[in-house]
Amino acid sequence: LNALRQSGARATFFASGNQFADSAQILRRQFDGNHLMATHTFAHKSGYVLSEEAMQRQIAMCDEITLRLYGEASKYMRAPGGLYPPWRDKKVGLPIIQWSVDTYDYSGKDAQGILRSVKEYTQHGDIILLHDTRPNTYKAIPLIAQYLTDNGYLMVSIEELAFMEGVTMEPNMVYARYADGQYDERKDSNLN
């Protein structure tokens, strides 16, 4: 959070239920830092194993906590594991936010390795996937912020990015990249 603040960056944090129990103070700091908060479902279970009612309950359970914690329900979601088709197909009622650049920070990469992914694959309008639960990600944030700033990019929330690019996000639609009034459902640009 300090690195984001120092670089003038804003981010979108997708929190799951276990984070609310373990990290409520950090989540509140994220919200108070003017970052966008969104749901990653309560139990982080694949939509492929949940009924439509269970999916709705996953979102509702997170919303109960976020309403208490910051007075707002989530307006956006990220599907656990990036497996969005069941969430989209069962019409959960929120825009589903994916990513177009996966840094693979969850795989144990060091800060320089995370930065290399950003340098190699980031283009205008991309959504970069990072995990706020990884120590090396914390170390990479100042490096990423410097690189993006030096190359003319802004670090903004997904809501700001959509607005800047003229995209209106709709419920049950999947968004992974925004550019020039268009959006892309692509999950990983660095895998193509």
Question: Which short descriptors sum up this protein?
Answer:
disordered C terminus, TIM Barrel, 8 helices, alpha/beta, two-stranded parallel ribbon, 192 residues, globular
Briefly summarize what is shown.
The protein is of the alpha/beta class and 192 residues long. Helix content is 41%, strand content 11%.
Overall 3D geometry?
Answer: globular
Strand order of the largest sheet: 1-2
Number of domain modules: 1
Report strand %.
Answer: 5-15%
Rg:
16 Å
Largest sheet: number of strands, sense, barrel closure: 2 strands, parallel
Secondary structure: helix percent: 40-55%
As residue ranges, the low-confidence spans are: 188-192
Q: How many helical elements?
A: 8
The overall average pLDDT, rounded, is 88
Class inferred from helices and paired strands: alpha/beta
* Spatial gap, N to C terminus: 31 Å
CATH fold group: TIM Barrel
Shape-level CATH architecture:
Alpha-Beta Barrel
Please write the string of helix (H) and strand (E) elements.
HEHHEHHEEHEHHEEE
CATH class: Alpha Beta
| Secondary structure tally: strands | 8
- For this structure, what is the CATH homologous superfamily? Glycoside hydrolase/deacetylase
